[in-house]
Amino acid sequence: NYVMGPVFTPPSGQGDGPNDKKGTIQMPGSVGGADWTGAAFDPETGTLYVPSMTNPFVANLLPGDPKLTNLRYRAGSRALLQGPRGLPLVKPPYGRITALDLNRGEQSWMVPNGDGPRNHPAIKHLNLGPLGHAVRTSALATRTLLFVTEGDQISVRTPPGGGGQKIRALDKGTGATVWEMSLDAGATGAPMTYQYKGQQYIVVAIGGQNHPAEFVALSLPF
């Protein structure tokens, strides 16, 4: 019941009839890929660290109401597209961090960002590794480590069950996790770092439907 095609397939009309289409499936979608959250760059190594996610959605059009607009069509529901049993429609990782060597034009490594739906009842028995959260996340490159977050469920167009609450430090050369901790809510902004009286801090904004917005500052013990 959907329109599918190659790159640049446009949105399509949505109908209510039994033979009508519901719209065009776009992947990773305008809220997927590396959209919105930017990337982190290491000038010493020429490496770009890009957070991205796969989050297909339906791009559809509805007839314009002549009482309200002179446009023939208007944007439709742009609904997220889930697969069977509420699992994602496509293969993992659903959220990832990719390191790109800009000196050679090559991918250095890619790792899933977070567990994703690995504990979903339909697949929990498979004991899968991290599948990655389909959610907006940001990265911060320091001289020694790469800090990444897991975006909160409150982030716009996060799929059901998406989002996480962890912040972690990755080895910049391999993507391996060297440290992580859970926050009281998922991140809602990019982490930043500053130094005060000789002490280095990492600060991230967090918040969610059940947690008020706040800044969390982290540092090594004094």
What does this structure look like?
With about 220 residues, this protein is mostly beta strands. The protein has no helices and 15 strands. It has strands at about 10-15, 25, 40, 45-55, 55-65, 75, 95-100, 105-110, 140, 145-150, 165-170, 175-180, 190-195, 200-210, 210-220. The strands form 4 sheets. Strands 1, 2, 5 and 6 form a 4-stranded mixed sheet that branches. Strands 3-4-7-8 form a 4-stranded antiparallel sheet, with no helix packed on it. It has a 4-stranded antiparallel sheet with strand order 9-10-11-12, with no helix packed on it. The relative contact order is 0.13. The model has no long low-confidence stretch (mean pLDDT about 90).
In short:
The chain is an all-beta fold and 222 residues long. Helices cover 0% and strands 37% of the residues. The strands form four sheets. Strands 1, 2, 5 and 6 form a four-stranded mixed sheet that branches. A four-stranded antiparallel sheet has the order 3-4-7-8, with no helix packed on it.
